[in-house]
Design a protein that fits this description.
Elements (H helix, E strand, L loop, with lengths): L16 H18 L2 H14 L4 E7 L5 H12 L3 E8 L2 H13 L3 E6 L11 E7 L7 H14 E10 L3 H14 L3 H13 L3 H10 L6 E5 L3 E7 L2
Parallel strand pairs: 1-2, 1-4, 2-3, 4-5
Antiparallel strand pairs: 5-7, 6-7
Helix pairs in contact: 1-6, 2-3, 6-7
């Protein structure tokens, strides 16, 4: 299945706020259905244990509605680890929703408006995470962004995204319609799979971004993760 990138409706700056909210809510339900936060959680836990952290700062890049990092922070809290979230996104509207979600969950969080592709990230954190964003980028931008994640991390980076396949395409089509009535979600979910990188391609991207020794594995459902830490 060849890679094919089209502009996703969620990325349109002219998208009406109400439709943006509806799409974000649909994506949150889709992420919950696929348990997306569970893809990054093992890498986060390994980094916390390796560095013996009882307080951890996690920078989540392209955070959207921040449902994933909030779930991770709540899991860490149950294990006695205090978490401070830095929620980074280029969309001010998404950041407002993300900050409210973290506040409602009682999580210490700070919104950070930035374009992690265009420029290095000004903040640093113990662990840098990013979920379901790499497929939005062409190869050069993906490598640049991964390099910025690496530079912002004191200990580790964990990235998760879609693994391009026909099975993944079918799952995205069906799950988007189960999770949401938003036409934005219905369009963007299959478009995301078409644009995604395979796990083997992700391994190459990580290598080119300077993540020597990055651990890249395929995950269910039709995802992959990159896990990298400072030597």
């Amino acid at each position: 299945m060849r890679q094919r990138r089209v502009d996703e409706l969620m990325d349109d700056p002219a998208l009406a706020p109400a439709e943006h909210d509806r799409a974000l809510a649909g994506l949150c339900r889709l992420n919950a259905l696929s348990r997306s936060h569970r893809l990054l959680l093992p890498a986060v836990l390994r980094a916390v244990r390796s560095a013996s952290l009882r307080k951890v700062t996690i920078l989540d890049v392209a955070t959207g509605a921040a449902d994933g990092p909030v779930r991770i922070a709540r899991h860490l809290a149950r294990h006695g680890v205090r978490t401070r979230l830095l929620l980074a996104d280029a969309s001010a509207h998404a950041l407002a929703i993300a900050a409210e979600r973290a506040r409602a969950a009682g999580i210490d969080a700070e919104p950070l408006r930035c374009d992690a592709v265009a420029a290095p990230i000004t903040a640093r954190a113990d662990i840098v995470t990013c979920s379901l964003f790499v497929h939005h980028l062409d190869r050069a931008d993906a490598v640049r962004m991964l390099g910025h994640l690496r530079d912002a991390a004191r200990h580790a980076v964990a990235v998760a995204d879609l693994d391009r396949s026909r099975t993944g395409l079918a799952l995205a089509w069906a799950a988007s319609r189960i999770a949401s009535r938003s036409p934005v979600v219905h369009f963007d979910a299959p478009a995301s799979v078409h644009a995604a990188y395979t796990a083997d391609e992700a391994r190459t991207l990580a290598h080119e971004a300077g993540m020597a020794g990055a651990f890249v594995v395929r995950r269910w459902p039709c995802r992959w993760t990159i896990e990298w830490g400072h030597a």
